Amino acid sequence: MMSFVRRAFVLLVLGFLCVPLAALLTGGDWRAASLDAQDAGAVLTSLAGGAVSVGLIALMGTPVALYLARADGRRGAVVEALVLIPMLMPTLALGILLASFYGPAAPVGAAFARFGLVLTNSPAAFVLAGVYAALPTYIMAARGALAEVPQTLEQIARTLGDGPWRVFWRVTLPLAQRGLAGALALCWVRALGEFGIVLILAYFPAGMPVRLWVDVQELGIEAVFPLVAVFLLAALPLPLWLGLRARRAA
What is the CATH number of the domain that holds 90? Predict the structure, then answer.
């Protein structure tokens, strides 16, 4: 009896989770399904900006994640708190703070602008928003993957004469690669789906989330289903594949 109740409860929760997919298949006006030039531009903006953001996140976040995986005590707690603060902030509030710091009227934003790098309403601003949105998520997920690497294997490599950099590339990275790939997949979805920061900091050029919002305001919900479908096709396959691959390897 308990087994039946448990299965029924699981099926109920799964049905609840699948409601968005059912709405995608049954809702909207697919007879007039099409993407205009602005929609296509939003797709390209999100894919290109998201790819650059993920690359920067991997470069910036992996050393911090490794530090957190090996650190303990007060210093580790302080670093972790500083990583968590932007992740826990409401995204609109974070976007406002970033715009006030990187905007053209701010000293930092003006300094970058003098070198031709405008950090509001530009492709660079879109990348910046993606990095701020997804970097903390990557660091925390990557920390878990790196913490699972046995430190004894790293110590053995050091006794054989390998330096820290060589140990990381030959021992740590190969052993943590599945977890790090999963962390990158999560930050890919986070960067592509960010709306609050992008709305304030990088409204132009519009990525997919902002374009969806604009289309909903102008055309209504039923007219935006083609762009929703493209958004999901761009965001979901990679993390789904990595998650299933990690489960098979477990």
Answer: 1.10.3720.10
Dump pLDDT digits (tens) for 105-128: 899 999 999 999 999 999 999 999
- 6 is a domain residue: no
Q: What is the pTM of this model?
A: 0.88
Please check whether residue 108 lies inside any domain of the structure: yes
CA-CA distances (angstroms) from residue 26 to 21, 29, 31, 222?
Answer: 9, 9, 12, 11
Q: How many helices (H) and strands (E) does the chain have?
A: 14, 0
pLDDT tens, position by position, 166-193 = 888 889 989 998 899 889 998 999 999 9
Structural domain boundaries enclosing 201: 36-249
Residue 66 lies in a domain: yes
Q: Provide the domain count of the chain.
A: 1
